[in-house]
Protein: triacylglycerol lipase
Amino acid sequence: MKPALSFILAVTLVDVGLCTQLNYTNTSILPLTDLPSFRGIDLQTAHGNSSQLRTDFDSNNTITLTPARAVHYDDVKISEELYERLVYFSKICALTYCITSSELVTGLTFEEGGCPARLEFCTGKEQNPTADRTMVELVLLAESEELGTGYLAVDHEKQVVMLSFRGSTTNQDWLSDFAIYPTPYEPASKEYYDDWVTSGRVSECEGCLIHRGFNVFLKTLSSQFFDRIESIFDSFPAYSLVVTGHSLGAAVASLAGIELRLRGYDPLVLTYASPNIFCGKLRAWVDELFETERIHNWSVSEGEIMFRKGYFRVVHDEDYITMVPPFYEPAGLEIFINHRELPQTQKHLEYRGPSMKLISTESMDTRPAFSSSGIGLGHRLLGPLEKWLHMYEHRAYFILINTCGGF
Structure:
């Protein structure tokens, strides 16, 4: 194993070991049977669908993470309209990276300078016909030891409120990525959660655990955040709500979407390249909250994806970030990009449905998840590591989604 990844995986396993009070030396890695299972299942015989993992150690103490075989619902078509919406929201995600250079301005439409004029998406009618009607309402800047940089914009032409979060950029972002120790889940909107449970609209989330690093977001949510969204919907009650993000921003978008759902909104949560952040019980509860099974069944029966609300995750072929951390699970309905390089077109999309079915490893193909076949981005020192981690695949979601440029 290469030194850098060996260190990263060691950090991961140390965190998991501390969580369950496992004891092992720093010169060996425990066999899989000694590692924790958050769902009480045998990880050697049962695993999740396309985005859950088979996790093995070989005789050389090399960890192998293998995505399980997915279900491709051929009869559920990806329409041109849905494809265009997925591309559009990937650009909404990419704009979060303009916050780093202070290029998003509140109180202005995209066309007026709310986002960089050098981007065709912000000024070009062909790229974005509603740029002159899309207003930047709020820029969220996470302070030290906080999480959740992003922005709030309103497209008055399409009548949609958009909340988008940025991926890993700051030191705190990276610390949160690696803090995989599970912690008990408690929603920030606790009184609303209690109302849902008491009224029987959703089950109580007993024994629910969440990725500790991403849970930081729930501890830093402010009332100002919710007040601003509430004021917008007071003025425009008929507007729809989309919560989106890339990578770490996708994890944050998932948590924000849960809070907004508990508060009575019907958001469409749309994540790109999200890591797994839920333990099994919490994943099942989130799917119940967002009516994942009902939306999936409707989509299958109608032959098209019901894409007005619910929880959807877009996953790129061989994007390894969507396969980790081990022992956590993805929620929602999966839309899969089966083509590695840009451009990705409508024909490169598959509907793969809910991330909830466990299957036997006997039915899975086995391939090393960390291989050298990925595409890096050409950094002189980090290029080989990025290639090994498949960082290009992690960023190539219809555009290079982690850059404030090129769209």
In short: The CA atoms of residues 189 and 259 lie 6 Å apart. The mean pLDDT is 78. The chain has one domain: 3-400. The two ends are 37 Å apart (CA to CA).
